[in-house]
Design a protein that fits this description.
Blueprint (H helix, E strand, L loop, with lengths): L1 H11 L4 H8 L13 H21 L3 H7 L6 H12 L8 H11 L6 E4 L1 H13 L3 H4 L2 E4 L3 H10 L1
Parallel strand pairs: 1-2
Helix pairs in contact: 5-6, 5-7
């Protein structure tokens, strides 16, 4: 909370709070074009925060790493983005969407991944629409509860 408070004070005294926020997010002004959305900038900021955490152990040159590694080069990043694009919209946010997003991001590394119906539909749509998506995603099945998962696994 102390970091948030400090940043709030910094923004309050800044001549250009937007530029300050972009700097904290490691988004360079040159990266933003006329078609760039606020959502994309937010995605970059979240991804770069994760990348910074990973880089603590790697200690690679930050500017080169930031330039060469994008979310689209990491399977879990591709899946996360695909679910944002293709998951059917609903009137309310379901808590299971977050859990299923995390589970789906593990799909490239598992023999089988069980997700809910909406997430499964989104993944199937992404398989059709995103080039090379099918190559990273292994078997995914829909299951409405753990009983269905246990039955499926017993059949294996």
């Amino acid at each position: 909370m102390s970091i948030v408070a400090e940043r709030g004070r910094t923004l309050a005294g800044s001549n250009n709070p937007v530029l300050q926020m972009l700097a904290w997010s490691d988004v360079d002004l040159e990266e933003i074009g006329p078609e760039t959305t606020i959502s994309e900038i937010g995605d970059w900021a979240v991804f770069r925060t994760k990348l910074k955490l990973i880089n603590r152990g790697l200690d690679l040159p930050w500017q080169e790493l930031k330039r060469s590694v994008s979310q689209s080069r990491i399977p879990s990043g591709m899946i996360d983005r695909a679910l944002k694009l293709y998951r059917p919209r609903s009137a309310e946010w379901k808590g299971s969407d977050l859990i299923d997003t995390h589970l789906a991001c593990l799909a490239p590394y598992c023999d089988i991944t069980f997700v809910d119906k909406r997430t499964h539909e989104a993944l199937q749509l992404a398989r059709k629409k995103i080039d090379k998506f099918d190559a990273i995603l292994r078997r995914t099945e829909k299951a409405k509860n753990t009983r269905v998962i246990i039955e499926q696994l017993r059949k294996q």
